[in-house]
Every structure is written in C-alpha cells, then in structure tokens.
Design brief:
Muramoyl-pentapeptide Carboxypeptidase, domain 2; elongated; about 35% strand; about 5% helix; 5-stranded antiparallel β-sheet; Immunoglobulin-like; 2 helices; mainly beta
C-alpha cells in the first residue's frame, strides 16, 4: 500500500509465499488473535499521534506468513478478537482508512488461495469500501452487523486489496472477530474448524422513491382533482437477490419552512396525506405505491419513505403550486403595492395569473380619477390558501392556516384599498373619510371598471375584483 495514497487508520493483512492446496481439500484456517506476533510500532504519516503496529503470523522463520498492520491512536486489543477505534475525518489530516485487507504475494494462476475476515463496524453507514482485484476496482456493500470479507487469489501477480475508509466525523470502532487463511501445506498450528453453517451476511436494502409529478396543484384550486395528487412509488432492492414481497414501507411528509410565501410558524400547517393510508406493502418486485393528496397550502413538502425493520429510507421534494404565477410589477405612476407597509407574515402578496388585469384596471382608474389605487392582497407566490394571521388584519382575529381569504388562491384575485392617493392637488373627487391627499374609491364606479376589463366585483366587505 502506498502511504501517499492511504494515510490514517488501517489494517493490512498480507500472505507470504508458499504452496497452496486445492480449495475442495480443506476448510479455512482460523488465526487465533493470540497467534499474532508483535514486530514493531512506528509513527505513521504526518500525524505523530498515529502509530502503525505491525504483527506477523505464525513466526519470523516460516516461509508462509501473514502480516497484519493496524494504524490507530491507541494500541489495538487482541482480547476475544481484534478491536480498535478509528477517529473521524474531522480529527485526522485526511480521510481515515479504517482497514486495508490484502496481499501482494499471490503467484499467477493461484485462484485457489483466499483471505477472509469477519469484521463489524460500529457505524457501517460511515464506511466506504473498494476492492482491487487484478487492477480492477469494484465497490462492495457493507451490511449492518457482521461482514464476511473474502479476498480471492490473484490471476496475475498484481496487488490485491480491500480498503475501507471512515467518511464520518464520528469515531468508528472496528471489531474483527476472526481472520482466516485458506490452509497451506503442513499448517502450524492445526486448522480450527469454521463455524457451521457459514455465517450469512445480513441483507443490505436500498429504497428508491419516485413521483409521477414534480408539482401538484393545492387542493381546491383545480377543477380536476387529479391535478392535486400524484402517485408516489417506493422500490426496495436487496444485494442478496431475495424475495422482496411483503416488505412494509411507511410514508410521511414535512413542509419546508417559509415555503409558499408563509413566513410564520409551521405549527398547525395542513400537510399532504396518503391514500389509502401512509404505508404500502411491496409486491415480488419490491415495489408499492400510494397516492399523495396535496393540502390547500402552496409550498414545498418533503415526502419521506422508510422500510420497516431496516435502516433504509429516501425522500423527495414536491411542489404544491399553481403554475405560472408572476409578481405584479410596481408602477408608481399609476398604482401602489400595499399590504406590507408594516410587518407582514406574507410579504409576497402580489402574485397574479395571466388572466389577471388589475394593472390595467388601475391605469383606467387613474385616467378617470387622477388617483393611484392601492393594490392590496392578490395571491401568494405558489398560490393556494392565503391566510393572514393574528394581528395582521382589520379584525385582529384571524388565525394562521385558515381563511379569512376564501379566494386569492389562483392568482385571479385583487383587493384594492378604500382610499386612493391623489396625483393632483385639490382633487375634485370625494375624499370621504380618507386622509388629506387621498380620495375615496367609489365602489360602484370601480365595479364598472373591473367589469369592463374581464373581472367582477366579489360581494364582500372589501373591494375585491376577481378575474
């Protein structure tokens, strides 16, 4: 192993030269931890706290030897196996190699030789491994629990190895319950029997998650219910090729903070739901589906799925939105954008659909009355329910995630202020109860302008033109 490529904590197991019997003629030779002979300890790399401990089996004079090198901050323990701790990557100069398990001693054609190691990591998800056989790289998968790592003999004289690195900032403990060699001529000591049956690796599952759509309409914003839902599919796979039917997958959803233009606490926020329920059972291919139904609130939700009884999960983001909404551009010559002068939980309150002509209505109003309309709440950036929140409306009784706005969901709504700012002095139009410099918006006259430009006045206390 090249030190300039692998610096950190590792185990290196090398097999000396010798003659090997055919595989069919023998079982594994188990090396007892007490049979390793200590050879030396030396500093490793640039970090003086890392020490490489070198061991050999069975003795210095044997022509057929295996060497074991463990690099760590404290000496490894050989009591009931081999145990040591690997520091996290934040505590090391580079990525930490947990173990390196290999041999450069195989002669060409020696396919009947092998090394085997039974190893458990305290956090297998923090470990990344690769195998190099005859110069070809592959990437074996580690399992939760004990891993049986087998390195076959070489077909050429190339270097053979398995290297595993700690990719986590947390420390990882390594427990090697036993190391085994394929027997050699007249082995010493006598081979120990391998536990029977041969330990079966624990299946390692992966879960993939897809959705038929990347975005859906908020509930109550589309004339077709299909626009407010999507099919979410979970697919379970196993590295052991087992029957994948009957696996239970659980689904949940979490809204993104401040998404959809709602800059207020998430508590009480309606979330999407799953039909027929928040779980499904896989078929023989490992696949199952649920239908996701959107809430009334626009925004982004993270849909998560996890497999029962296994440490595997996945997630995807879904947009809940009315597509195509755009912000109304400010035009201080003809109208004002209002509703956010003081603190507001919904600063993006002027989003509109293509069919909304409130800007044209405002220009016509200005031409007739020499006053600039105050355009108030329209729709939020992603549409859906436009709540207001406590203390942010006239009645001071509104709640988060609930009306008073019953419309304002599709970008076709526009409220206007009851007072319009005059563009001239001594404006002849009625000021009513408005402040000096403003005129009162006449409801009937405004309704006519709204109607003439593709809208209608909604029968409510506010002045609301709906397109």
């Amino acid at each position: 192993m090249r030190r300039d490529l692998f610096r950190g904590i590792f185990v290196f197991l090398a097999l000396g030269t010798g003659v090997f019997s055919p595989v069919s003629a023998f079982a594994f030779l188990i090396i007892d931890p007490s049979d390793w002979n200590f050879l030396s300890a030396a500093p490793w790399g640039d970090d003086p706290s890392l020490v490489s401990y070198l061991y050999q089996y069975p003795n210095l004079n044997s022509p057929r030897i295996a060497s074991l090198s463990i690099t760590t901050r404290t000496p490894p323990s050989f009591s009931g196996g081999i145990h040591f701790t690997v520091p996290g990557v934040f505590n090391a100069p580079r990525g930490i190699t947990v173990l390196n398990f290999g041999s450069n001693s195989y002669a060409p054609g020696n396919m009947n030789t092998a090394l085997a190691m039974w190893v458990t990591f305290s956090s297998s998800t923090s470990i990344s491994c690769y195998m190099q056989l005859n110069g070809v790289l592959s990437y074996p998968t580690l399992h939760e629990g004990e891993n049986v790592i087998v390195l076959p003999g070489a077909s050429t004289s190339g270097y053979q190895q398995i290297a595993c690195q700690n990719v986590s900032p947390s420390d990882v403990t390594v427990d090697i319950s036993q190391i085994a060699l394929l027997p050699i001529d007249e082995p010493s000591p006598t081979p120990s029997p391998l536990p029977s049956p041969f330990p079966s690796p624990t299946p390692h599952y992966t879960l993939s998650l897809t959705s038929d759509k990347s975005s859906v309409y908020p509930a109550k914003t589309s004339t077709t219910n299909d626009n407010s839902n999507t099919v979410v599919t979970a697919i379970i796979q196993s590295d052991l090729g087992e029957d994948l039917s009957g696996k239970i997958v659980y689904f949940s959803t979490t809204p993104k903070v401040d998404s959809g233009g709602h800059l207020h606490p998430l508590e009480g926020r309606p979330m999407g739901s799953f039909f027929p329920g928040p779980s499904c059972v896989t078929d023989g291919s490992g696949s199952c589906q649920v239908r996701y139904d959107a809430p009334e609130i626009g925004g982004v939700e993270t849909v998560s799925a996890s497999m029962a009884g296994a440490l595997t999960s996945n997630a995807l983001d879904l947009k809940i939105e009315v597509p195509g909404l755009k912000p109304l551009e400010a035009n201080p010559l003809f109208y004002q954008l209002t509703g956010t002068e003081n603190f507001s939980y919904h600063p993006g309150n002027h989003y509109m659909a293509e069919e909304n002509y409130i800007d044209i209505v405002a220009v016509v109003f200005f031409d007739q009355f020499d006053a600039m309309l105050g355009i108030n709440d329209m729709s939020l950036p992603m549409g859906g329910l436009f709540d207001i929140g406590p203390g942010d409306d006239e009645s001071k009784t509104s709640e988060f995630w609930k009306p008073p706005h019953s419309l304002h969901r599709l970008g076709r709504s526009a409220d206007v202020d009851r007072c319009a700012k005059s563009a001239i002095q001594d404006n002849p139009n009625d000021r009513g109860r408005c402040s000096i410099g403003y005129i009162q918006v006449d409801r009937l006259k405004f309704e006519k302008i709204c109607n003439n430009n593709g809208g209608h006045l909604v029968p409510e206390s506010s002045i609301h033109c709906e397109f």
